[in-house]
Amino acid sequence: MNYKIDLSDLLFKALDGKLDKNKLVGLIEKPKYSHLGDLAFPCFELSKHYRKPPQTIAIELANKIESPLFEKVEATGGYLNVFLNKQSVSNVVLGSVVTNKNHYGTNNVGNGDVVTIDFSSPNIAKPFSMGHLRSTVIGNAIALLLDKCGYKPVRINYLGDWGTQFGKLIVAYKLWGNEQTVRENPIKELLKLYVKFHEEAEIDPQLNEKGREWFKKLEEADDEAISLWEWFRGESLKEFSKVYDLLGIRFDSYNGEAFYNDKMEDVVEILQEKNLLETSDGAKVVTFNEKSLPPCLIKKSDGTTLYATRDLAAAIYRQNTYNFSKSLYIVGNEQSLHFKQFFSVLEKMGYQWHNGLAHIPFGMILKDGKKMSTRKGKVVLLEEVLNEAIQLAEQNILAKNPNLESKKEVANAVGTGAIIFHDLKHFRQNDIEFSLQDMLKFEGETGPYVQYTHARACSLLRKGQYEEDVDSIHVVDQDHYTWDVIINLMKFPEVIEKATESYDPSQIAKYLIELSKSFNKYYSSVRILNDEDHKHSRLSLVHSITIVLKEGLRLLGIKAPEEM
Ligand code: ARG
Question: 12, 40, 403, 494: least CB-packed within 10 angstroms?
Answer without folding.
Answer: 403
